[in-house]
Each structure stands twice: as C-alpha cells, then as structure tokens.
Amino acid sequence: MDKHFGRLRCLVLVAAGVLCLLPGGAPAATRNTEFLTRDGCELFLNGKPFHEISFNKYDLVLEMFAGEEGRSDYGPNPALSAETALKNLHAYGFKTLRAFAFCHGGAAFLNPVRKARYLAALDKTLELCDKYDLRLVLCLNATDIYFWKSQGETLADLVGNSRSKSRKVSEAVVGELVDRYRDRKTIAAWEHENELLYKADSGNTRRECLGLKVPTLAEVIRFHAEMAAFIRARDPNHLITTGDSYRESLWHQSQFIQGLGKSQWAKDTPEQLLSAVSAAQAAVDLFCVHDYINIHHVEPRVCGPADWVRVANAAGKPVYYGEYGSLPVPRNEKTKAKWDKNPGWFTSYEGDEGRKAEAYFARGIAQFLAAKPSLVHWWTYQHDAAAWQKDPNRGDISLERTPRLFHQIAEANRQLQLATMGFTYVTMP
Predict the structure, then answer these.
(1) 3-state SS assignment for residue 72
(2) Which residue, 161, 261, 293, 318, shows the most beta carbons closer than 10 Å to its own?
C-alpha cells in the first residue's frame, strides 16, 4: 500500500466515523413489509427476498407535470403516455422503476402556482404506480441548479456547507417531499442526487470545472451522510441511496486536488476506486453505482458488478445499479476515433443496429447474472419528450418500438429472480 493510498484510507475511516455520529446513525432495516426493506445486504418485498432488473423511467414525473401545466413538450396527452408505459411494465411483472423529481426544474417548486401543479402531478404519478403495483426510487435532485443559483451560491456551497443558504433551500424542498410521502409504500427508496460523486474533485486546483465550482470527495461523503440523517429523522420507513456514479480516476482526482499526486486523471487501481466509492455509500441503505457498457469507455472497467457486490455485501449493504445500459453512439467526426477502435458499436436500438445492441446488452446481463446484485434499473424506458422523438440516436427501450431489447431485459429479470429468489414475478403476456 503506497503512502497516498494510506492517506485516502485514513480519510475514509475518519469520514465513516463522522457518519456514525450524525443524527440517525447507521441504517437499520425496517420490518414493515408494506415497504421495500432490507436486512443487511438483502432486500425484501412483502416479506420475501427481492432482486430485480427493471428500468429507469427518468421522465415519469416530468411528463405528468407537463400534463398538469398543459405543455406540449410531452405530446398531446402526457398522462396517457405515462400510464401506457407503467401498464406495459406491470404486464411483464416489473415491480420497481426509477424517476427524477426535478432534473434542472427545481425552480417550479419555489413558485407557488407551479408548485401546486407539480405536487398534483407527483400525487397522480404515485397513484398510477399504485394502480400498476410499481414502487418508485425517486431521485430528489437535492442539488438542483436552481437551489444554489437562486441564492447566488455555487454547487460547492450547497454540498460543502451545511449552513449555506442553498442547503437550506434544498432541505426545505426535500423535507416537504419526504414529509408528504413518508407513509406511502409506493416509494421504494429516496435518492439524494443524481451522479454527484461524478463531479467530486473534477475541476482544476481552484476546484473549477467548466466554470462550475465543484465539491471535493470529502465534501460529497459528508453531504450524503448529512442528507441521509436529515431524511431518516423524518422518515423511518423508506430506504435511502445516493444516486452515485463515479470516474475511474476518483482516487487520483482527490489526491491531486489535495496536492498529494501528480496525475489527476490516471486510472485508479481496483483497491483505490472501491475504497473511494465505498466511503460515499457509508451512511445509506443501498450501495449505489451507475455504469454503461460502451459509450463512456472503450477499455475494460477497473471494477465490475462482481467487485461492487463483493465490497458492498462485505459492508452489509445491497448493491443498487441505479443506471446501467449500452447506449447508441452517433457516428461523426467527433466520435470517429472511438468508432475505429469499436466497429461493433451501434447508432440505434432499431433494425440491424438493434441487433448489435443486443450483443452489448447480453454482455452486461451476463455480468449481472453472475454477480447477482439486488437491484438494477436499466437506462431507460420510453422517452416521451417531443425532442427525443426526432433524435436518430435516441437511447430508450419500449415494448412497442424495441420489443426485442425489451424482452431481453424481461428475460434477464426472470433469470436473476429464479437464481436468487427461487421464484419470479415475470410474466410474458
């Protein structure tokens, strides 16, 4: 173990100690079987062990909100489109999905007129989920850009300073949503944020990345702990997760920003990466990572599903892949060099290109069937936004448009459940 890694390990241990002292302490399994629960590294639904490969439907709440506001950006009947998606998922026996609360739309919650419409949309979203027996991992987007810009602050202020004005705005929004739905079994888990860890130490030595002031790894670790304690104090019923993705240079980035390393973007060793990501998951119930099998990388991954399951289970936590997938890649001058190295890539999920996508999907599925994570939400089900309809490289799956890929995921879910639970919820209408 080199001296720099030893320093990071000390940071991890100190951070973990801080987490245990925060209000709420370490996560504990709730025994109310109406909710999705955990006992150590195992999930339970209705008192039975639970594993699933399902989907993101990230725009579900946004779509319902468009309907409440009478906007056309989700087509002529957003609520009907949303219900069709849930009806199809229910018909095949899926039990959970993931959606965003805001996605850069937090300003709506701070406008009284729009807030009333937003809450009506969220109420109707949960009612639809109940109708189709689906539980929702709701990403609270607690660092929504408007929360800090409206206060004249930065992302780093919101994340790193619990007394900042923007943190208070974030907590007010998160607290109201948690209070409103803390008794609803429809919520599978609260998720603090989407891919905050990905931003940690991603800037220069002034902590700026593309003009954005970014937090450090230590600040993200602390933020996740503080938000988990804040939510858990209001709601003992629901599981909590982080929504984290990561860069494979996360440890090196942290060292570089602290002046302890020479290379900010060097690839981490498995030990380095596993420790850095694990520290950010210490205070939550579901050990969360995001990953994609082609577009974000060309080389073999430093850590795969088996590594994350091993480390998370050793810490007594289930693994949650909040996003996973293999996305179409546009073929143009910008991507030419990567295409030259990867001629098997694809530009679409449809037709002959869709056949290539199936091969990439199969690679990811094989890893999950071997590693057996608790929960996977594939990216993504049924883009209904009008802008996506015109995108030739759109990256969404649906029963109507891409039936072969949809059935591939349904079959993977069936196999995972039979292997881990001894039974399956999957039905093939």
Answers:
(1) coil
(2) 318
The mean pLDDT value for 98-106 works out to 94
Q: What is the mean pLDDT of residues 106-116?
A: 96
pLDDT in tens, 260-278: 999 999 999 999 999 999 9
| DSSP notation for 147-179 | HHHTTT--HHHHHH-TTSHHHHHHHHHHHHHHH
Supply angle C-alpha 129, 131, 132, rounded to 5: 65
Cα gap 198→380, rounded to integer Å: 20
Q: Look at residue 247 and give its three-state secondary structure.
A: coil
CA 275 vs CA 20, 254, 262, 289, 315: distances in Å = 17, 12, 20, 13, 11
- With vertex at residue 207, the alpha carbon angle to CA 202 and CA 209, rounded to the nearest 5 degrees, is 55
268 phi-psi bin (left φ>0, alpha ψ -120 to 50, beta other): beta
Task: Give per-residue pLDDT as tens, 7-62.
Answer: 554 455 445 444 443 433 344 444 577 999 999 999 999 999 999 999 999 999 99
pTM of the model: 0.94
Nearest to 51 by CA among 427, 428, 424, 429: 424
Pair 414, 424: CB distance under 8 Å: yes
Long-range pairs of 38-45 with CB within 8 A, sequence gap ≥ 24: 38/239, 38/285, 38/286, 38/317, 38/318, 40/316, 40/317, 41/312, 41/313, 41/316, 41/317, 41/318, 41/374, 42/318, 42/374, 43/318, 43/374, 43/375, 45/95, 45/135
6 contacts: CB under 8 Å, gap ≥ 6: none
Angle subtended by helix axes 112-131 and 78-91, to nearest 10: 30
Give residue 298's pLDDT: 60
Question: Does residue 4 carry a pLDDT above 90?
Answer: no
Instruction: From 336, 328, 370, select the one nearest 352 (Cα to Cα).
Output: 328
Are 53 and 368 a contacting pair, CB within 8 Å? yes
